[in-house]
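Entry 14. Ran structure prediction on the chain below.
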Amino acid sequence: MGQSRLREPGGHAAALLDWYDRCARDLPWRVGPAERACGVRPDPYHVWLSEIMLQQTTVRSAWRYFEEFIDRWPTIGDLAAAADDDVMAAWAGLGYYARARNLLKTARIVAQSRGGRFPEKESELRKLPGVGTYTAAAMAAIAFDRPAAVVDGNVKRVLARLDGLRTLSTTDHDFRERARQLTPTARPGDYVQAVMDLGATVCRPRAPRCADCPWESCCLARLSGSPESYPGRVSRLPKPVHRCLAYVAVRADGAVLLEKRPESGLLGGMLGWPGSDWAAPDEPHAPPCDAEWETVDGEVRHVLTHLDLRLTVQVAQVAGDCRPCKGDFVERALFEPRHLPSVMQKVWRVAEKTLNK
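Output, structure tokens:
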């Protein structure tokens, strides 16, 4: 589509939607353009669940979790009736565990107070736990086909390149205003997903595929000759490093010692290995039980949003009558390492090698 067509009112949207009709990604939570054309509507439950999972998470990582959740809890009523521990265990490994707690809160609000129906307006969606400005806009557009300015990191990059912005110092409000200008009243849900797909598959951070872009002829970054340099990288401060301890105790009958973390804070409400306080690693602490603790060679490293964890792992074989001061023993037959958060799975893998020597 030429530049003259793009200059027409709605030209940007028309060009992008033409591209989307040919190149849309096939995603398990998505109703594609061909299905929409036949009158198939998205399930708001699927849209909401996927958007919550995709917060701070890649499509590849969220894909399997989405399919497992839908298989186990096909409707929002099923999810609302689920036990907290079951949902937290199913979420394990996906990270940012406040999302899982808010997931249950919202599911129960929608199921119990709204008859299983999500609100359609952004302002009402934002009242739900865990639903912020971006998620509310995405749900309004994708689930209910309402015009909405949906702006995430990928969309910002696309808009910054389109308008030739050297930095992302422009406020979120300005980006939303620009997105609102470009969003059509017809097919806004498809348009929003098209911009997402464009940023994910064509207008990539490195090696953008400009020749495949429907906006190539009017993209100022492309016309500059160096699209990859737009927008410039934002310098980030180094994350603080916290050095902590994790204790892995295995009873004579094979049971393992786990504790449920506090509801608030890192990994809130999740099962894990007892250890020192991550937020205050230098605070006095003691092992969860008396034992001959052995320090595992090396350390477990795990990067979180705001800090870099370095965990020293200690292991011990304990007697059958062991009475820990924190945590409880879980029978080996009931112990599922994959139900632990990622960092706790890493701890188990290194501990298991030492315990099996």
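The mean pLDDT is 90. Will compare against last week's run tomorrow.
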